[in-house]
UniProtKB/TrEMBL annotation:
Residues 103-127 are annotated as: Disordered. Residues 6-95 form the ABM domain. The lineage of its organism: Bacteria, Bacillati, Actinomycetota, Actinomycetes, Kitasatosporales. It comes from Streptomyces griseoloalbus. This is Quinol monooxygenase. Pfam families: ABM.
Amino acid sequence: MHDTTLSAVGFARARRDRAAELGDILVAVAERSRTEEGCLESLVHRDLADPDLFVCYERWASEEAVARHLAQPYLEEFLDRLRDCLEQDLIVHRLSLAGPAPAPVASEVRDVRDGPTEPDDPTTPGR
């Protein structure tokens, strides 16, 4: 089976004293992106050694999902607000998997209908 997922990694460097504003904008866009059909993941990270640098990671189900996302009207407003906060142009790398995705580990998969589990409870199913 051919994997159609696409990922994007974006690097955004804030202008001096604009990092908090830039971070707020990026997080708001990530939250909105996560509501879109085909968005599998949308995260914003802040570099620990360089607090003016943000790294955004998105994973989409298909090229079509990315195209729908990029056509969203709210993105134009986002880009206008973003430009005011950036020290340099946003750098985006689009990625595809270089090999097959790993299968989920059995211990990571459980039915949420089983309710919460206590990590040290020996009576927890599967222990």
